[in-house]
Amino acid sequence: MIVRTLADAEKSARCVVSENWESVRLLLKGDSMGFSFHITTIYAGTETPIWYQNHLESVYCMDGEGEVETVTDGKIHPIKPGTIYVLDKHDKHLLRAKTQMKLACVFNPPLNGTEVHDENGVYPLDAAEISD
Ligand code: 9YT
Fold first, then answer.
1. 43, 97 in Cβ contact below 8 A?
2. Chain centroid to CA 69: how far?
3. Ligand 1 atom 10 nearest Cα
4. Residue ranges around ligand 1 (CB below 6 Å)
5. 23 vs 6, 75, 76, 110, CA distance in Å?
6. Ramachandran region, residue 14 (left: φ > 0; alpha: ψ -120 to 50; beta: rest)
7. Edge to edge, what strands does the sheet with 75-79 contain?
């Protein structure tokens, strides 16, 4: 069994900080579960272009308010606590946080651990692994 706390993970290499967000990666590829699980904080007032060409992601909003715009059709999806959005088609999108948002995120395949977005909002498949 694996047992971890968010408080401990926040103080470790599992906490990855980017310009618009920070992601505490509680489960990763090294845990051999077939998915990774993260608690992500999106900073208020930010817009993040994302296009997970190599991953599927489900995102459940626990706190805060924002929206997702899907780039192909310009559709705007409001996001608030209790909403899940699922990028089942590797959807290219813009994530806008009106207030700070707390999200629970699941990735398949699992992230290695150190991924940050490249210039297209993509996570590569060959990022360095975190396995502590
Ligand atoms: C919702 C989203 O994808 N935000 C970017 C960070 C990502 N969730 C992560 O790496 O935890």
1. yes
2. 16
3. 23
4. 21, 23, 38, 40, 50, 57, 59, 95, 103, 105
5. 11, 26, 24, 14
6. alpha
7. 47-50, 93-97, 66-70, 75-79
Mean pLDDT confidence for 19-25: 97
Q: What percent of the chain has pLDDT over 90?
A: 97
Report which residue type is found at 56: L
Instruction: Give the CB-side neighbour count of residue 76, counting CA atoms within 13 A.
Output: 5
Structure tokens at 132: 């502590």
Task: Please write the tens of the pLDDT for every residue from 5-15.
Answer: 999 999 999 99
- Quick one: pLDDT at residue 131? 79
In the chain, the domains with their CATH numbers are 15-108 (2.60.120.10)
